[in-house]
Amino acid sequence: MKPTRTARLRRHVSPSNLIAVGAVLLAGCGVLSACGGSNDGNNVPGNTKPAFAGKVTVTRYDGVSDDLLTAGLGASGLASATAPAIANPTAPTAAELRRLAIYANYRALVDTAAKGGYGTLYGPNVDASGNVTQGSGMIAGTEYVTYSDDGTGQQNVVLLVQIPDSFDVNNPCIITATSSGSRGIYGAISTGEWGLKRKCAVAYTDKGTGAGPHDLATDTVALQDGTRTTRSAAGSNAHFAAPLTSSQLAAFNAATPNRLAFKHAHSQRNPEKDWGLFTLQAVQFAFWAINDKIAGTSGALVGSALPVRPDNTIVIASSISNGGGAAIAAAEQDTGGWIDGVAVGEPGLNLPPNTGVQVVRGGTTLPTTGKPLFDYVSFANVFRLCAASSASVATAPAQAFFTSLTTFPAGVQANRCAALKAAGLLTSTTAAAQADEALQKMRTYGWEPESDLVHASMSFYEIDPSVATTFGNALSRASVTDNLCGLSFAATDASFHPTAVSATALAQMAAVGNGIPPTSGVQLVNNNAQGGPTRSNQSVDSTGTRAANLDGALCLRNLLTGADAASQSLQAGIRQTLRTGNLQGKPALIVQGRNDALLPVNHGSRPYLGLNAKVEGGSSKLSYIEVMNAQHFDGFIDLVPGYDTLFVPLVLYEQRALDAMYANLKNGTPLPPSQVVRTTPRGGTPGAAPAINAANVPNFTSTPAAGDRISVSVSGGVATVSVPN
């Protein structure tokens, strides 16, 4: 176990233990076989590679032509609307895919518009102290990449460690950046940015998800670097191949042509149950890689102790969304003393039932809190499309898209409302009243009124059906051949029927996809649609109505309570993902936007604060920061007109949380108490909001006003989380 440490008692590396080792030495290629290539490190005595790690690829980036943070694009390149060029679009190189992945993932997670704060409040050219520099923000260093596998060749979780040349051996630090959503290995690059600027190594993992599909029609798969080959040629090196025999694949292709399998949905491993484990493995691999890099640079390690060890290194578990949930899972499961503190944004947290936690807002006890993700997202998948058409939110961003664009059939929201009424799920008799009723159901089930204006964009971009379908498959360990609830993944033609995915889209999908269709031209398909398999949101239901596949949504929802094998498997899968609330006394900061409509604060961060207080009592060191006028997708702020006028960037608060945690672990600076941060939206005209400034985004404080404090009390076995309006 790692000894208890304070800022005053930190142990540092003795110079006598090293041979001319320092931060400057990390800039060289040392004794590695090449500045870019595959090897298993330097075989340093005493620095044993973890047993779970396979072959290691080590690549050096000079910070000029290529780098760790921007892939050679610099701050301006990441902000450019023009994606990096691919010489041969149907056969991109590994280097081209890496550059494209960093570009796509950074922009998906961060608002890269100057008016939104990019380049002034945050971004590669803003240094660790918040100063705006004139540089490109490129960071030289080395990457170590491997698979974590259990011996089957089926797990193949990617682990990546970025070690900047500036890494300070005398003040070592590691930050985790587990991928968000279902993304690939660079799916938390915006979290890694903080660590690289702080001269920390960054430990990434894709946590058993990723964007490179198994194209079942051509039987081709992605490799670790995103390039593609046949399943037979890839063998155990495939990042993911659906576990099917040749005869099973042939039968499925004959009955269900042109489909694709994705790792999160179709690995049949319920990877979420191991997200904490994979995050811990990333940390362990990082320690090995750092010491290997030091040895490769200096030529040797001297002394009985490795220079970078758990007892002398600050380790912060971090990331956002599902990656943030993985960081919390890792901290709960950390029995080896690998993690010192936690700082996460908008984490995905599945809480157990009957926790004895209640949430009170403004003096009113909220009726529905602490549900697991599949529960509330399957609920939203039924009601949100209708709710978003309420006249009370008619001006919501993206609501106009339902009539101005052809993504959905005309009248689909009214159709969904009417179908809900016909199914006995609504009682109102007019479309307007049905929409209002559905919106109220969303509020009663845990969404705050501040999320109302986000429902339209969530619906238009099909976020609920995509999440419900992928997690439904994953949690129930469904095979792609099961076509769970009649749903599958395929590209579709102009008539919305399945067709072969384009060669270009497939070749680049590991880099630009998010791993959770709809993505990169791959759509959700309703196999049971009248008239044959059809893109789900355009399909005709069993009732003859174009209601965006309410049949499929109800099927997914019913898995929560059903008694059939698929339902029982899903319910067991959820139980494997539940958090305990026990952070083992580790200091922790959670930051989330009150307007979050994907992971509502009432189902994760707020009740987790109460559960932690109930479990840890006086040992708890968790603080929760709730940011007003902030929601889940910073990448939408410059994408969807109206987001810019309504919402501030949460990434800024995630970075501030990391600053606070580092100061706590390094210097003993107290963490801020739980509080609401009252920001000011930019306002103005949708799509043309004025530039943000520091006054819009005040920091959290060590002494919040009484009316801003979030408190927790435990009495009679019940934890009460009290949140101000």
From TrEMBL:
Instruction: Write out the entry's keywords from A to Z.
Output: Hydrolase
InterPro entries for this protein: OHBut_olig_hydro_put (IPR016582)
**Its catalytic activity?**
(3R)-hydroxybutanoate dimer + H2O = 2 (R)-3-hydroxybutanoate + H(+)
The answer to whether UniProt assigns keyword Ligase to this entry is no
Which GO terms of type biological process are on file? butyrate metabolic process
What GO MF terms are annotated?
hydroxybutyrate-dimer hydrolase activity
> Where is the catalytic site?
321 (charge relay system)
Q: Known Pfam families for this protein?
A: 3HBOH
Gene Ontology cellular-component terms for this entry are:
extracellular space
Task: Describe which pathway this protein belongs to, using the record's wording.
Answer: Lipid metabolism; butanoate metabolism
Can you tell me which family this protein belongs to? Belongs to the D-(-)-3-hydroxybutyrate oligomer hydrolase family.
Q: What this chain does, per the record?
A: Participates in the degradation of poly-3-hydroxybutyrate (PHB). It works downstream of poly(3-hydroxybutyrate) depolymerase, hydrolyzing D(-)-3-hydroxybutyrate oligomers of various length (3HB-oligomers) into 3HB-monomers.
- Protein name in UniProt: D-(-)-3-hydroxybutyrate oligomer hydrolase
Q: Which organism is it from?
A: Ralstonia pickettii (Burkholderia pickettii)
Q: Lineage of this protein's species? A: Bacteria, Pseudomonadati, Pseudomonadota, Betaproteobacteria, Burkholderiales
